[in-house]
Amino acid sequence: MSGDVAPLLPTFSSFEEYWAARNHPTLWLEAIRHALDAAGLPSTGSVEMLGPSQYPTALACDLDAVATVYPDQWGGTRSYELEIEAHGVIAGHGLPVPDLIAHGALPSPAATRPGWAWLIETNAPGQPWSRVGPAMSRRRRERAASHLGALLRRWHAIPHTGRGGHLGSGWDAFLHLIRDELSHLGENDGRLAGFPPAMRPDLHRLAATTLTEVDAATPTSLIHGDVHSENVLVDQAVGAVTGIIDLNEMYAGHPWYDLADACFRLLQGEPGSVHRLLTGYGLDLEEPVDGIALRLLGWALLHDFDVLTPTCQLRGTPQTNVADLAGRITGLRPHTEGSQDGQSVP
């Protein structure tokens, strides 16, 4: 295969068509092999498409490397640029992220159509939390949660301001994101559907109050932005985080955005594990935890993704008040007096 010959890229008439085909087991292999060839890597070995992923991603098995192709539509160009920038910011800080091997752009098959960017990284060790977390002992899950908390604390402290680009632009992009979530809360997804209708005004007020935590006069933190159970890899034998992958949702923003994400989409409000995540991060939980539980819920309401629904379905939603709800679904007060245990509101 020659790096000068344009690969045949699929064409899509809509985002929905692309989304359904983004992890097709063979559709993208020619483009993936072209990227390997362009990087000067062997392109004839075994290549397996991975999924689920936002963009077509494959494992070059013989190289133990992961290649991703980014469409020029549907946010692909920004995600590619952000991945490159993020690698530059994080490199050298000792965090368990893949190393960047090479990146570039596929040649356009036609003058009227741009080529698609590609990126190749080392394959991070370990298995996704989603795959092995349930089989780990509770002690090992809690140990891994504590380790993740410590890693996120280090991540959030990485210097990133004054660089320009996507990650050094102050609060503007992050504030735009969470203000948009507040203004459309419950409209773009089903994150409020499982809560009692009478509780929803209080949830809106909590989200609005949470937004006021952002002080634009203070420095931002570097946040991952997508701390879910597919993006955190663990060694299940010892309960340690071995990899944090997918850097294309990173922001200069507020650290509790990541903590809420990890609490719900990764740990699903498991009592003990959330506590260890937060203490591993360095928070003092000897004080009453009601305010911490509400803070986690507030940031979950402002998150770009619906981080709440699966956890609410698993933990149940007390029908008393927002404080009881927060305590239950964060796992910080799972048996709050007066809550209706085991009842989930349709």
Give the strand line-up of the largest sheet: 1-2-3-5-4
Instruction: Tell me the Rg in angstroms.
Output: 21 Å
Supply the helix-strand structural class.
Answer: alpha+beta
What are the secondary-structure elements, in order, as H or E? HHEEEHEEEHHHHEEEEHHHHH
CATH class group of the largest domain: Alpha Beta
Return residue spans where pLDDT drops below 50 for at least 5 consecutive residues. 336-346
Shape designation? globular
The average pLDDT is 90
CATH homologous superfamily caption of the largest domain? Aminoglycoside phosphotransferase (APH), C-terminal lobe
What's the total helix number? 12
Number of strands: 10
Structure, explained:
It is built from 12 helices and 10 strands. The chain is globular, with a radius of gyration of 21 Å. The longest helix has 19 residues, at 138-156. It is 37% helix and 12% strand. It has 2 domains: 15-122, Phosphorylase Kinase, domain 1 (2-Layer Sandwich), CATH 3.30.200; 127-330, Aminoglycoside phosphotransferase (APH), C-terminal lobe (Aminoglycoside 3'-phosphotransferase, Chain: A, domain 2, Alpha-Beta Complex), CATH 3.90.1200. By secondary structure, the chain is an alpha+beta fold.
SSE blueprint:
Layout: H1 15-21, H2 29-38, E1 47-50, E2 57-60, E3 65-70, H3 76-90, E4 100-105, E5 117-122, E6 127-128, H4 129-132, H5 138-156, H6 172-183, H7 200-211, E7 221-223, E8 232-235, E9 240-244, E10 251-253, H8 256-266, H9 273-281, H10 290-302, H11 309-315, H12 322-330
Antiparallel strand pairs: 1-2, 2-3, 3-5, 4-5, 6-8, 7-10, 8-9
